[in-house]
Amino acid sequence: MRKKSSDGKKIQSQMDTLKKVLGYIRHYRLFLALSLLCAAVSVVLSLYNPILIGQAVDVIIGPGNVAFETVVQILWKMAVLILITAAAQWMMNLCNNKISYHVIRDMRQDAFEKIQLLPFGYIDSHAYGEVVSRVIADADQFADGLLMGFTQLFTGIITILGTLIFMLTISPRITLAVVILTPVSLLVASFIATRTYSMFRQQSVTRGEQTGLIDEMIGNQKVVRAFGYEEEAQKRFDEINDRLEQCSMKATFFSSLTNPCTRFVNSLVYAAVGIFGAHQAIRGSISVGQLVSFLSYANQYTKPFNEISGVVTELQNALACAARVFELIEETPEVKEPETALEMKNPDGSVRIEHVWFSYTAKQKLIEDFNLSVEPGQRIAIVGPTGCGKSTIINLLMRFYDVKSGTIRVAGTDIRDMTRKSLRASYGMVLQETWLASGTLRENICMGKPEATEEEMIEAARASHAHSFIKRLPKGYDTVISEDGGQLSQGQKQLLCITRVMLCLPPMLILDEATSSIDTRTEIKIQNAFARMMQGRTSFIVAHRLSTIREADVILVMKDGRIIEQGNHESLMKKQGFYASLYNSQFTM
Fold first, then answer.
1. CA dihedral 301, 35, 97, 154 (to 10 degrees)
2. How confident is the model at residue 589 (pLDDT cuts 50, 70, 90)?
3. How confident is the model at residue 493 (pLDDT cuts 50, 70, 90)?
4. SS3 545
5. Do residues 430 and 308 share a domain?
6. Residues 320 and 183 both lie in one domain
7. Is 477 part of a structural domain of the chain?
8. Are β-strands 379-383 and 554-559 bridged in parallel, bridged antiparallel, or unpaired?
9. Between the CA of residue 86 and those of 38, 159, 297, 306, what are the distances in Å?
């Protein structure tokens, strides 16, 4: 019972995936109709050739008794039909390519758009390489299967129907014998195909796992080598690679059984047609030319079953890959903004956090009954031990995550009642983890303000002390950098991120360890630049080096998701509490 239930679920899963694929294909139904028409034309014309061959055989009676004029006429007809058939097949392949690659383009576009809308909880809980594998590798595998399906499935089905019709016109009795033996081939193909879907799906999942590991190891190669993790990384890769080999071998082995099994059955059909047809020819029921035509049809009739069985197997792999892409496309997006969501313009910088509770997982509590009132223009520093919730507060302010309960208000408005885009545009954020896109330095700096002038860009770079090192680069601001600025130092990348914020000058700032990768001398200069930039702007500063936040208006000392101390540097030092012990520990030898 369990096995039947499992098979039923697999079939239902395949049908659901197929329906979704057809939903994408319907946008190109005109190309689909043209492809079917061309397939019908090419098949019908190619099936008419055996009739002409049979006619040619029948006019070759014996030595010295050949109707050469008739043979020549038949050959001319065949040549014209072959040319038309070739043109129809070319047009059919053109339409099939158009459909397949446009469908894949649409699916990839939907998948990438969904990634932009996914909650950060999904992004943080899934390996980047695994997500990339769905959008790239799985989509490619699906494209190959879909193209093969269009190219061979249509022509195969039409060929089977066409040959049946032509065979019936020659000899209904022999045709009946062929039809009786046909289900054997279908049963063999169906039996194998239903057992390969789960194998191809497991292959796709394991391939995604491997892609995720490779992405992780390459992206952190310096750390891997610095800590001598090469052997362990190799072991992890070998283990996944071995599993992928086993999955692929099983899937390929069982799918490869389809063709030889159906060929064996089809050979039996051809042999039966030859024996029975020869008997009919001897009795005078059909002519020799008709027998030649019928044998040709029998061969053409059985050939599509081999092709379709191979297509069905390939479609199993394609549908398994498509299912993984659809899983990504159908992931639950971020909470949708209400239609009445407000566009925040020129906020005054006031922030109210009232009775906020939040945790990433239900089992592990983090922020509990958090309250904070920030006046416009205040500089708020957030300090505390690792894991106390400092960066989580930033995530909640930017609405990367939504609070479980409570409210966060900016300029008196609940941030859930305003558009995420306008909220995030009101903050300038510099994180400890830098990110730069592949492109020119100019494009990276002006990312938040594409309309900025040359003078504005250079002024921002001077303020962040990035201008001097940019001018030393081969092409200055037009220097092209690779993904994440690979050829720049970590400090230079952070300076560029700071420049990006200084160019935008938003009304509120978030600085999360913004100078962690910068040398002390440059840091002092940047802190002065930050001080000028923060004048009149509400600023949230997360820092581990407490010497950098001494001038903050309010210092929030967090521990286990709660504010345990609050005040400026002098008042907190006088209390001789947790902040004082943290501060003194950084200067104790």
1. -20
2. very low
3. confident
4. coil
5. no
6. yes
7. yes
8. parallel
9. 10, 15, 19, 22
